[in-house]
């Protein structure tokens, strides 16, 4: 599903409960996260719909390197000849997508949270077990990123992974927050602002602390890695996520 302008000049592609964002700035487009392998035709179609041919795509930036956000990164890199940017602390995961730390074992989650089972099946069907690692990547510098379309501020928000980062677009009053804060927890099926379950989160305590960095942006719109955009303000979303706690 492709939705234009979930924030000013930022478009959302949703496939198998995973979001990818396109950020337009003049004749340049950045892809933020790259979903699962099945998103490829939708990504190509969305780029075509906004008039972005091969020469318009400038970067692929990853909020973090889990397999469901790394999906077609290698393909994007080869097809568009663009750099893939990731925080240096997630470089190992980017090269080895299935070797990452998580607090809790996964096998009990489908039993405890049956509402999540259709989501997990959809992700598996979309290629969750077929993601290729990256051999070539560049590191995402923190702070103002004038080289990226939209001129975001990159903020390190560790917890979900050691190298998780969010992209704050002050001029567009929006934050692409990856899995630092989601409105759909794919391991529990719960909706509303949450941190992701311990089945996929490295350090829930750090993840909860990083929520303060999201609140500090003061952004009206949050664009999560899973679930619908949140338009009720960053501070309210963070309060709810903290109240919901880890799972």
N-to-C SSE string, H for helix and E for strand: EEEEHEHHEHHHEEEEEEEHEH
- Specify the helix fraction band: 25-40%
Secondary-structure arrangement, i.e. CATH architecture = 4-Layer Sandwich
Mean pLDDT: 96
Major sheet, described briefly?
Answer: 7 strands, mixed
CATH uppermost class: Alpha Beta
* Total count of strands: 14
Rounded to the nearest angstrom, the radius of gyration is: 16 Å
Flag low-confidence runs: none
**CATH-defined topology:** Metallo-beta-lactamase, Chain A
Q: Going across the biggest sheet, name each strand in turn.
A: 1-2-3-4-5-6-7
Number of domains: 1
Global morphology: globular
| Fourth CATH level, the homologous superfamily | Ribonuclease Z/Hydroxyacylglutathione hydrolase-like
Quickly give the structural class: alpha/beta
Q: Indicate the proportion of strand residues.
A: 25-35%
* Amino-to-carboxy terminus distance: 28 Å
Tally of DSSP helical segments: 8
């Amino acid at each position: 599903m492709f939705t234009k302008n979930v924030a000013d000049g930022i478009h959302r592609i949703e496939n198998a409960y995973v979001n990818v964002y396109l950020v337009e700035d003049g004749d340049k487009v950045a892809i933020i996260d790259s979903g699962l392998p099945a998103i490829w035709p939708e990504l190509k179609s969305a780029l075509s719909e906004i008039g972005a041919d091969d020469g318009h795509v400038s970067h692929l930036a990853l909020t973090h390197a889990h397999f469901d956000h790394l999906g077609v990164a290698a393909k994007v890199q080869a097809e568009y000849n663009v750099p893939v940017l990731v925080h240096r602390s997630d470089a190992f995961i980017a090269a080895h997508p299935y070797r990452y730390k998580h607090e809790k074992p996964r096998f009990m989650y489908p039993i405890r949270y049956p509402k999540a089972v259709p989501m997990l099946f959809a992700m598996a069907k979309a290629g969750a077990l077929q993601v290729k690692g990256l051999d070539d990547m560049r590191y995402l510098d923190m702070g103002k990123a004038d080289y990226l379309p939209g001129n975001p501020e990159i903020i390190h928000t560790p917890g979900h992974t050691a190298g998780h980062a969010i992209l704050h677009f002050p001029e567009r009053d929006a934050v692409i927050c990856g899995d630092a804060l989601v409105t759909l927890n794919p391991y529990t099926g719960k909706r509303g602002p949450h941190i992701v379950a311990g089945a996929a989160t490295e350090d829930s305590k750090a993840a909860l602390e990083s929520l303060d960095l999201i609140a500090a942006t003061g952004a009206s719109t949050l664009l999560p890695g899973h679930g619908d955009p949140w338009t009720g303000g960053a501070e309210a979303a963070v309060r709810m996520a903290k109240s919901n706690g880890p799972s």
